[in-house]
Design brief:
By secondary structure, this protein is an alpha/beta fold. It has helices at about 5-10, 50-60, 155-160, 180-185, 190-195, 245-255, 260-270, 325-330, 345-365, 445-450, 455-470, 475-485, 490-500, 545-555, 605-620, 650-665, 675-680; strands spanning about 70-80, 100-110, 125-130, 135-140, 210-215, 220, 225-235, 275-285, 310-320, 340, 535-540, 560-565, 570, 580, 585, 595-600, 625-630, 645-650. Keywords: Heme, Hydrogen peroxide, Iron, Metal-binding, Oxidoreductase, Peroxidase.
Length: about 700
């Protein structure tokens, strides 16, 4: 990555390859296997400084885990503007389309511990650090545009409720338990966010295939001092796509690092993830023109009412060199802003402006976390702050106070016209009061709008998620409260949940909200085959001509074919050439693939047939594309070939169809019940040999 931040980090990078072993003081050592003892079988001596240094460092290697967003990964990249935003903001990095701004992004889950799985049902963090020439700007975003509460004072309560229950510390990384749903039923401002959390948005296929939202309403300020309300958006170039629930649970066991590895491998392969950076803009005079309060963090701005203006692109093009030094030590803060970007009175945002600094102080050992290489701004910083844990700056001046004559009044403040930061002069008045505006009291209209906007399969997934989560709640009273609450969102949905979890259907009239926002449905997202993994199952004697035709088409479509066979030994085709498998049936699984192509071969034995049928079955049940060669089509269950996204290969037309099927990701109109029906009727194909 050719940018200033990478050059800045170079001074901190150390390659130990080929170097002599030394202590942290630079002393070369003759031995690193044995501690210093009084005789070969004697006690270790206290004077062994090398042992003490090594063990002491090891004992202190770990820093406190993040309370939330503990499980994550990150990557470096760059941001480039499409058009100047000078009309709206004086932020330097939003002025010149020819300037590339280095960035660092950290993706994360929220509720789980650092050792939890990637694919759990949860909100995903999407935090970006822009290393601008005016200082660091942090956009601390999520993959959902709203949040569980309206006021930050309730954040500890919510996190306590969603974390594992304190008596047993289970379940891990899951909200399917009593305390979470008790909180939700008694804090109904959470209704909208819960709809998102129960939707497919909570189980993204990849960090490269999820949206990012700034959540809060911020302000842009231009050179003339004019303010515009703004919400931030990040839209993935590959579209917004998700796993299905059964997959997430299996992937958590098969590959708990699924999303981490996906991001790292994509960047290593040169498939650099891209996100378009957009803004929704609302003139200050239109603050009260909508049917909700724009400062309410449980509300979104429907894109059909306020379009997203795409203003730039983010590209992730470099993996980290050291996970701890970069991903674990990176410190974000919504209060890290630059001139031209300011806050609003969103009460959740206001609380975060305090909380994030307080968090970094305990995690990173003191007030100098800004000097850690991953957090250090590109521009030099000068102020009167001194000392503290882990201070790296060596201040040579004798002056550490503001008003002075010995240093001619420096470091000095600068005016707003010279680039100094000045807060927007919003007029504020009112009595000191612990209360909430009446404009924040509608909790269900946008929750209903979200549900109304979903496709039929997305609605089913939401209902199934509720049935699973609420079905795990032991308290019948809490289950009843949840059902009654979500009767305000959609009566039919609540009725089905009630029937499933063994409580009464909600009483009263049907939910009264009818508004929709098509932009909220993943069914309307971009659909491309790029980077999707296609498992290609082969065995000795496979048809070389057919295989090469399919493989070339897959590469042309920019998918990622991965060869699977019974062993990792080279597999010879009918034309004499060999393919080296990447995986065996033991080392991978159909849930880790986005599609499968089964070509088999004349030497497909009974054990391999069993594995192939397992791959076909799982792929089919998860609505993913399947391509099988004509000569092994009998491995498909009865009537499976007639279903959407299933293709029997007998020419180029079928190859093109398969590529198109991959582009669609999932085939929701497929009848997955035919497999169960076949088993019940005894018509399932028997295991057979194709020798």
């Amino acid at each position: 990555m050719n940018n200033f931040k990478d050059e800045q980090l170079n001074q901190f990078r150390v390659d130990d390859m080929g170097k002599d072993l030394t202590t942290n003081q630079g002393l070369k050592m003759t031995e690193d296997e044995f501690s210093l003892k009084a005789g070969e079988r004697g006690p270790t001596l206290m004077e062994d400084f090398h042992f003490r240094e090594k063990i002491t460092h090891f004992d202190h290697e770990r820093i406190p885990e993040r309370v939330v967003h503990a499980r994550g990964t990150g990557a470096h990249g760059e941001f480039q503007l499409y058009e100047s935003m000078k009309e709206y903001t004086k932020a330097g990095f939003l002025q010149n389309p020819n300037v590339k701004t280095p960035i660092f992004i950290r993706f994360s889950t929220v509720a789980g511990f650092r050792g939890s799985a990637d694919t759990v049902r949860d909100v995903r963090g999407f935090a970006i650090k822009f290393y601008t020439q005016e200082g660091n700007y942090d956009l601390v975003a999520n993959n959902m545009p709203v949040f569980f509460m309206q006021d930050a004072i309730k954040f500890p309560d919510f996190i306590h409720a969603v974390k594992p229950e304190p008596r047993t510390e289970v379940p891990q990384a899951s909200s399917a338990h009593d305390t979470f749903w008790d909180y939700i039923a008694n804090n109904q401002e959470s209704a909208h966010m819960v709809m998102w959390a129960m939707s497919d948005r909570a189980i993204p296929r990849s960090y490269r295939m999820m949206e990012g939202f700034g959540v809060h309403t911020f302000r842009f300020i231009n050179e003339q001092g004019k303010a515009t309300f703004v919400k931030f958006h990040l839209k993935p170039a590959l579209g917004v796509h998700s796993l299905v629930w059964d997959e997430t649970q299996k992937i958590a066991g098969k590959n708990p690092d699924f999303n981490r590895k996906d991001l790292q491998e994509a960047i290593d392969c040169g498939n650099f993830p891209e996100f378009e950076f957009g803004v929704q803009l609302l003139a200050e005079e239109d603050e009260f023109s909508l049917d909700f309060d724009i400062l309410d963090p449980t509300k979104l701005w429907p894109e059909e009412d306020i379009p997203v203006k795409i203003i730039g692109k983010i590209t992730l093009n470099k993996n980290v060199d050291n996970f701890f030094a970069e991903v674990e030590q990176v410190a974000f803060h919504p209060g890290h802003v630059v001139p031209g970007i300011d806050f609003t009175n969103d009460p959740l945002l206001q609380g975060r402006l305090f909380s994030y600094t307080d968090t970094q102080l305990i995690r990173l050992g003191g007030p100098n976390f800004h000097e850690i290489p991953i957090n250090k701004p590109l521009v030099q910083f000068h102020n009167n702050q001194r000392d503290g844990y882990h201070r790296q700056t060596i201040n040579t001046s004798n002056i550490s106070y503001h008003r002075n004559s010995l240093a001619n009044g420096t470091p000095k403040t600068v005016s707003e016209s010279e680039g100094g930061y000045a807060h927007y002069q919003e007029k504020v008045s009112g009595n000191k009061i612990r209360a909430r505006s009446d404009s924040f009291k509608d909790h269900f209209s946008q929750a209903a709008m979200f549900y109304n906007s979903m496709s039929e399969h997305e609605k089913k997934h939401i209902m199934d998620a509720f049935k699973f989560e609420v079905g795990k709640v032991k308290s019948k009273e809490v289950r009843q409260q949840v059902v009654d609450m979500f009767g305000n969102v959609n009566t039919d949905m609540a009725n089905q949940i009630a029937d499933s979890v063994g409580v009464n259907r909600p009483e009263g009239e049907c939910s009264k909200y009818s508004k929709v926002s098509p932009a909220l449905s993943q069914a309307n997202t971009v659909k491309r085959p790029d980077t999707l993994k296609v498992g290609c199952i082969i065995c000795e004697g496979y048809n070389s001509e057919e295989f090469n035709a399919v493989l070339n088409a897959l590469y042309d479509a920019k998918t990622t074919p991965e060869i699977i066979s019974s062993t990792l030994s080279p597999v010879k085709g009918s034309g004499g050439e060999e393919q080296v498998p990447k995986y065996t049936f033991t080392t991978t699984d159909p849930v880790l693939m986005d599609a499968i192509y089964v070509i088999g071969g004349p030497n497909l034995d009974d054990k391999a047939v069993t594995e192939v049928k397992r791959f076909i079955h799982e792929t089919y049940m998860h609505y993913k594309p399947i391509l099988v060669s004509q000569n092994i089509s009998m491995l498909l269950d009865a009537n499976m070939a007639a279903q959407s996204g299933v293709t029997i290969l007998d020419g180029n037309m079928q190859i093109n169809k398969f590529i198109n099927d991959i582009s669609m990701h999932r085939h929701w109109d497929r009848n997955v019940n035919i497999i169960a029906t076949n088993k019940q009727s005894g018509n399932q194909n028997k295991t057979l040999s194709l020798k």
